[in-house]
Predict the 3D structure of the following.
Amino acid sequence: MYGKQRIQDNTMIDTHVHLYDSAFNPDRDQVVERAKNAGVTHCILPAINKSTYAAMQECLKKYPGFCHKASGLHPTSVKADFRQELDHAYSTMAGAVAVGEIGLDFYWSREYEREQINAFEQQLEWARDLDLPVIIHSRSAFPELLASLKKCTYPCMRGILHAWSGSREVFEQACRGGYFFMGIGGVVTFKNARLAETVRETDLKSIVLETDAPWLTPVPYRGKRNESAYLTFITRKISLLKDVSIEKVIGQTTQNALSLFFKK
Ligand SMILES: [Zn+2]
């Protein structure tokens, strides 16, 4: 047990990284190498849509045991043809450790609001039927998110509210629907982020680490391409905010992610 604990204290899980994105085409091997050197042992790769699936699959094949698949349809990819996209996403579910990323995004437009809600609720049902966690993306959609979670809740609903940008209160309301972790990434390192306050108020037992790479790069590399090795900047910031050691941040968040994705 001691040996196992030691490993968990020093290793991190990037619960949200789009390593298959073309931004990594020039040097993906080195990106993976740097992540491993930084202590990252597992990456969860959330799906976006049909057009990005082949690249994701290639990445999963290339880094077995390191990259793990989530299957689903991203809310910003929900358009008029969402039923075909959903059929495709469902057909790729074998071997997935989660249904994701799914959710609601009304930041850009509400044109497909009805369709987004339909697709989200349909995929929550898959997670229930397949007994898998969900990776939820929510942007400019908190009332609708809470309504769908309330409507679709089931006893083992669990997952991550990824790139959380809401308050502690909204997080708690979402947790009435299921057992959720708050996905914390680079945004926590930005100056004056309201998120800092939310993280301060939230128990480490409810937090998991993520980069959302190649996007949402933490300070000091904000504006450049993100990668999993930069989890170190995120763990450092969380440790400062919560006034606990970096080891404690890493140990607890890794345990959280392991329990969610890799233990039945
Ligand atoms: Zn994402």
User: Anything to note?
Assistant: The mean pLDDT is 94. Residues 13-261 form a domain with the TIM Barrel fold (CATH 3.20.20.140). The two ends are 19 Å apart (CA to CA). The longest helix spans residues 113-130.
